[in-house]
Write a structure and sequence with these properties.
Radius of gyration of chain A: 23 Å
Oligomer: heterodimer
Shape of chain B: globular
Number of strands of chain B: 8
Largest sheet of chain B: 2 strands, antiparallel
Strand content of chain B: 5-15%
CATH topology of the largest domain in chain B: Alpha-Beta Plaits
Number of helices of chain A: 26
Distance between the termini of chain B: 66 Å
Distance between the termini of chain A: 42 Å
Helix content of chain B: 25-40%
Helix content of chain A: 40-55%
Order of helices and strands of chain B: HHHEHEEHEEHEEHEHH
Number of domains of chain B: 2
Largest sheet of chain A: 6 strands, mixed
CATH architecture of the largest domain in chain B: 2-Layer Sandwich
Number of helices of chain B: 9
C-alpha cells in the first residue's frame, strides 16, 4: 500500500451513525489512480461492498460524499459528488453539486466522507479538520433547509463553515428529495435526501484549515493557470457568465428546438419571453455567485419584486429548473415560478423530478385519466402556479391522496394509475427526464439513455462525452468551467494537472481507460440489478409523436437512432450487444473482481 | 518628423516604413526573400523606437473593494495564499470572502488605516507588526510576535479583519505583497464578466477607507443585503460602531 504523494491524503472519514463513531479509512494510491475520486470512488465502494439486489435503504447502506484530487487546489471550479445506491431507481447514482463544500472537505484533510448506519435520534455532523462531533438535531428536524442552514451556521460560530442539509422532503422519505448545499445548490436527482433522512442525518457542516499537498507545484500551477485562462477567455462562455444557464431557455426554444413544453408535448413555447433568461435579468436578478475559483459564476440570485411573493430572495431560473417548472408546466408568471423553485430548495426536493411529476399529473388530468378527486380536489392546469405550489407542499409532506400519489415519481405513478398513463410517463430507468427534448437535440439522448443513473442530463451528450463526464464527475469538476470548455483538450489538461499534482505518470490514453473503467464499474452494478440494452432507450412518446411545432418541427427519435447510439457506445467501451461488459473488457480495465458478478447476471438473463 | 510618424495610424506608418525599405532595396538589390525579411524587421524597429522607457511602477499603498461586485469565487484568497505559502490554503489568506446568510459575499480586507489601531495595540517592544514605509503593507516579525496568547491586534481591528494563522496562532495581516497586490490581479483576471472587478489598489487612500473600517463583516453583510436586494425598501445605512471590543472566538 502506498500513500498518495499529492492531491489526495489517502484517508477517508468513515462515519458510523448507528454507533455514533468515526474512524479513518486508509485508501492506497492505486485505488485513486484506478477510480480517481468522487463518483468513481463511490462506484468502486459500491461494487466491492455490495452484493446484487442490496436494499438501498438498509442500515449498512452507505453514501459517499466525494471531492476529487483536484479539489482544494488551484484548479478552477471544483465541485463535489455524492455517490450511493439510489433508493429511487434502485441503481447506482451520483449527484453533483457546486459551491464550496467539496473543497472544505479536502481542506479538513479528508478525501471524502463515507457515511453508513442509521442514527436513533436525528443528528447533524460537525467536522472541523480532524474533529468530528455528532450533534443533536432535534431542534432542526422538520425545519426547512434555509432554517437548518442558519441554525447550523450559528452553532458552528465560523463564517467559513459550509453546510449540506436536507429539508422536510428528505425527512419524509420522498424518493426524489435532495441534499441542499449552502442553501441554493442541490445534490439531487438520485434520492440523496431520502437516504440521509433514512439515516436520520439532518445535515453536515465542514470547516478545514489545511492545504492539499502537491507533488510538483511548479508544473501543476503552469497547467492549472492555463486551464483557468481558458475559462476566463473563452468567448462562448461569456453568455453563461451573464445569463447563467437560463440563457439556454431562449436558445433551445428558438434555435435548438429542444425546450420541453407541457410534459414533452412540444418544444415550441413562445411565452418563453415571459419567463426566460432575458426577462429574469430584467425583473429578478441582482447578483452573480461563483463556486470555488470560478470565473463563470453561473448561479444568479435575485429578489421577487412584485406579487404575492414580493421580497423573497431566490435562486434561478437555471435551464433545468426554468424548463421543468417553467415551460414544462406552461408557466407565464416568472414570479410564481421562482417562488416554486425556491419552495423546492427550501423543502429539499429535486426540482427536475418535481417538475416532471407535476407535468405528468397535469397532462393526465387534461386527458381525463386522473380526476381531481384523486388529487384532493386540486385540478392542476398549465400555468396555474398556485395549485402547483400547493402540490409541491403536499408532495414534500406526503400529505393526502395527492401527496402520496405524486411522491411516488412518474414511473410508479403510471403503474398505479394504469388506464394508458404509461404513454405519458417521461422517464428513463425510473427517473424523470431533464429539460432537453431529444427529438430536437438528439445528442442529449446519449446522456438520458446511456448515462449510469438514467434520465440524467449531466452525463455527456456523445460517446466520448459520456467518458469525459464520467471523469468530470469523479474529479468533481464543473462541466462549464472545465469539461465542456476544454473540448478536445480534456485529456491533455486533466492528465497535465493530475500528474504533477499526484505524482502519477498517466498518459492521455489512460484518461480514456480510467473513464471507461468508471463507466464499466457503474454499469456492472446496474447489470447486477437487471439493466441491459432494453433499458437504455427513450420513452415511447419520442418515438411515436413528431414535434408539432418549432424550429425542429416534424422531428422524431427513431428506433434506428437508438440502436445506432447504443451500438456506437457499447463498442467504444467494450460492452457486448446486450450492453453488458464483456469479460475481456473487464480484464483489460483491471476489474477482474467483477467477472463472476457479470457471469451470474448473465445467467439470470437467460432464465 | 519622428514625432509625427509616431502619431500616424498603423496602416500609414507601415506604408512609410515600406517606402523607407524600398529606398534600402535600391542599394541592396533585393530578392523577394530579402524583401520579406526586411519588411518584417522594419515595423519592429519602429516599435522599439516608439516604446517609451519602462516607467518605474510605484508601489500600491491601499486596497479598495467594490463590495457589490464580489461573486464569492475566492480567487483573491487563492492568490493570497499561493503568494505567501506556494499552495492554495485559504485559511492562511490575508484577505477573506465571508458569506452572509449565504446570499451575500462580503470581501473583508485590510483598509491600511493611517492610525493603524492594530499596531498601536501591539504590546511588544519593538512592535511585532510594523508598517513598511514603501508599500504601506503591515509586516509581521514572527520572532517577536506572541501569537495565540496575545492577539491584541485582532481585538483592536475595528473591521474585525484580523484572523489568526491556524498553525502558529499569529495574526494574518495584509502586507500589500510589497506594493503589487496579488488579490487585485487575481480579481481583475477573474472578472472578464459583466460585473467588473471587486478589488482595486491605489497609491493614495481615500475617505471611504476610514468610513468602511468601522463596519464589521456581519454589519457589512447586512448592509450589502439591503443594498443588493432591497435598495429602495430599507437601504438605510448601518451606523458604524466606534470600537469592536469583543474578542471573537476565532481560530
Amino acid at each position: 500500500m502506498t500513500t498518495p504523494k499529492g492531491g489526495c491524503f489517502g484517508k477517508i472519514l468513515e462515519i458510523d451513525l448507528s454507533k455514533q463513531t468515526y474512524k479513518t479509512r486508509e485508501v492506497p494510491d492505486e485505488i485513486y489512480q484506478k477510480a480517481i475520486g468522487g463518483n468513481g470512488l463511490g462506484a468502486y465502494f459500491a461494487t466491492t461492498e455490495y452484493k446484487a439486489h442490496k436494499d438501498p435503504l438498509a442500515e449498512d447502506a452507505f453514501m459517499f460524499i466525494g471531492p476529487g484530487p483536484l479539489n482544494g487546489t488551484y484548479c478552477v471550479s471544483t465541485r463535489m459528488s455524492i455517490a450511493h445506491m439510489s433508493p429511487y431507481t434502485g441503481l447506482i447514482s451520483h449527484a453533483e453539486t457546486g459551491a464550496h463544500f467539496g473543497n472544505e472537505i479536502k481542506w479538513a484533510g479528508w478525501d471524502g466522507i463515507y457515511i453508513k448506519g442509521r442514527s436513533k435520534k436525528p443528528v447533524w455532523l460537525s467536522i472541523v479538520d480532524d474533529k468530528v462531533e455528532f450533534k443533536d438535531a432535534a431542534k432542526v428536524w422538520g425545519k426547512t433547509t434555509e432554517e437548518t442552514h442558519e441554525m447550523i451556521m450559528k452553532e458552528m460560530k465560523d463564517p467559513y463553515a459550509r453546510t449540506a442539509v436536507i429539508g422536510p422532503a428528505g425527512e419524509n422519505q420522498v424518493p426524489f428529495s435532495c441534499v441542499i448545499v449552502e442553501r441554493f445548490r442541490a445534490a439531487a436527482r438520485s434520492g440523496t435526501g431520502m437516504l440521509m433522512g433514512n439515516k436520520k442525518l439532518k445535515g453536515l457542516a465542514v470547516r478545514g484549515t489545511k492545504a492539499v499537498p502537491v507533488a510538483d507545484n511548479g508544473k501543476f500551477m503552469e497547467m492549472a493557470n492555463y486551464a483557468k485562462k481558458l475559462a476566463v477567455e473563452k468567448e462562448a462562455w461569456q453568455g453563461i457568465k451573464r445569463w447563467g444557464t437560463a440563457g439556454l431557455l431562449e436558445q433551445n426554444n428558438y434555435f435548438t428546438g429542444s425546450l420541453i413544453t407541457k410534459n414533452y408535448q412540444t418544444t415550441w413555447y413562445p411565452d418563453i419571453v415571459k419567463i426566460g433568461g432575458e426577462e429574469a435579468g430584467r425583473k429578478f436578478w441582482k447578483r452573480h455567485v461563483a463556486c470555488n475559483h470560478c470565473p463563470v459564476h453561473c448561479l444568479k440570485l435575485g429578489v421577487i419584486r412584485e406579487g404575492k411573493y414580493k421580497g423573497l430572495i431566490a435562486e434561478g431560473p437555471e435551464y433545468e429548473s426554468g424548463g421543468l417548472l417553467g415551460s414544462n408546466l406552461g408557466m407565464t408568471d416568472l414570479n410564481t415560478e421562482l417562488a416554486m423553485i425556491e419552495a423546492c430548495d427550501a423543502y429539499g426536493i429535486d426540482n427536475i423530478s418535481t417538475g416532471g411529476v407535476l407535468g405528468f399529473a397535469t397532462e393526465l388530468v387534461e386527458k381525463g385519466i386522473l380526476k381531481p378527486a384523486d388529487l384532493d380536489g386540486l385540478k392542476p392546469k398549465w400555468g396555474d402556479g398556485e395549485t402547483y405550489m400547493e402540490l409541491i407542499r403536499k408532495i414534500c409532506y406526503k400529505e393526502g391522496k395527492a401527496g402520496k400519489l405524486l411522491a411516488k415519481g412518474v414511473k410508479k405513478m403510471a403503474a398505479q394509475i394504469g388506464k394508458g398513463a404509461e404513454a405519458y410517463a417521461m422517464q428513463v430507468k425510473g427517473k424523470e427526464l431533464a429539460a432537453h427534448d431529444p427529438r430536437g437535440d438528439k445528442a442529449r439522448a446519449y446522456s438520458y439513455c446511456l448515462g449510469s443513473c438514467g434520465g440524467d442530463h449531466h452525463e455527456g451528450a456523445s460517446t466520448r462525452a459520456l467518458i469525459i463526464f464520467a471523469m468530470l464527475n469523479s474529479l468533481s469538476l464543473c462541466s462549464f468551467a472545465s469539461g465542456l470548455l476544454w473540448g478536445g483538450e480534456n485529456a491533455k489538461i486533466t492528465v497535465g494537472m493530475l500528474n504533477p499534482l499526484c505524482g502519477w505518470s498517466m498518459k492521455e490514453d489512460d484518461y480514456w481507460t480510467t473513464g471507461k473503467r468508471i463507466m464499466t464499474m457503474e454499469r456492472v452494478f446496474n447489470v447486477r440489478e437487471g439493466v441491459s440494452r432494453k433499458d437504455d432507450g427513450l420513452p415511447k412518446r419520442f418515438m411515436t409523436e413528431k414535434l408539432p411545432a418549432g424550429p425542429k418541427k416534424g422531428n422524431i427519435f427513431t428506433a434506428e437512432d437508438t440502436k445506432k447510439m447504443q451500438d456506437e457506445f457499447y463498442s467504444f467501451v467494450g460492452w457486448d450487444e446486450k450492453g453488458i461488459p464483456s469479460e475481456a473488457t473487464l480484464k483489460g480495465l483491471g476489474l477482474e473482481y467483477l467477472i463472476d458478478d457479470v457471469a451470474a447476471a448473465r445467467k439470470e438473463y437467460k432464465s | 518628423m519622428e514625432d509625427k510618424k509616431k502619431k500616424l495610424p498603423e496602416l500609414i506608418r507601415t506604408e512609410t516604413t515600406r517606402r523607407g525599405f524600398l529606398r534600402g532595396t535600391a542599394v541592396a538589390a533585393g530578392s523577394a526573400v530579402a524583401m520579406a525579411t526586411i519588411g518584417s524587421l522594419a515595423p519592429k524597429s519602429a516599435q522599439a523606437q516608439a516604446k517609451p522607457p519602462e516607467p518605474k511602477k510605484d508601489p500600491m499603498k491601499f486596497l479598495f473593494a467594490e463590495r457589490q461586485n464580489c461573486t464569492g469565487c475566492r480567487a483573491c484568497e487563492y492568490a493570497c495564499s499561493v503568494y505567501h505559502t506556494g499552495v492554495v490554503r485559504p485559511s492562511v489568506s490575508r484577505i477573506h470572502v465571508l458569506k452572509y446568510k449565504d446570499s451575500i459575499d462580503v470581501p473583508v480586507l485590510c483598509w491600511h488605516c493611517n492610525d493603524a489601531p492594530c499596531i498601536a495595540a501591539c504590546p511588544t517592544t519593538p512592535k511585532a507588526i510594523q508598517v513598511d514605509p514603501k508599500s504601506n503593507g503591515i509586516i509581521l516579525n514572527e520572532k517577536i510576535c506572541l501569537g495565540a496568547k496575545c492577539l491584541k491586534c485582532q481585538e483592536a481591528c475595528p473591521a474585525q479583519y484580523v484572523w489568526a494563522n491556524p498553525d502558529t496562532g499569529q495574526p494574518l495581516i495584509c502586507d500589500m505583497c510589497g506594493g503589487d497586490p496579488e488579490c487585485v490581479k487575481a480579481c481583475s483576471a477573474q472578472s472578464g464578466n459583466p460585473q467588473g472587478p471587486c478589488l482595486m489598489a491605489n497609491k493614495l487612500g481615500f475617505g471611504v477607507n476610514m468610513a468602511y473600517r468601522a463596519v464589521t463583516p456581519e454589519q457589512a453583510g447586512a448592509d450589502l443585503m439591503f443594498l443588493t436586494f432591497y435598495p429602495n425598501v430599507g437601504g438605510k445605512r448601518i451606523t458604524p460602531v466606534k470600537t469592536a471590543k469583543t474578542k471573537k472566538a476565532r481560530r
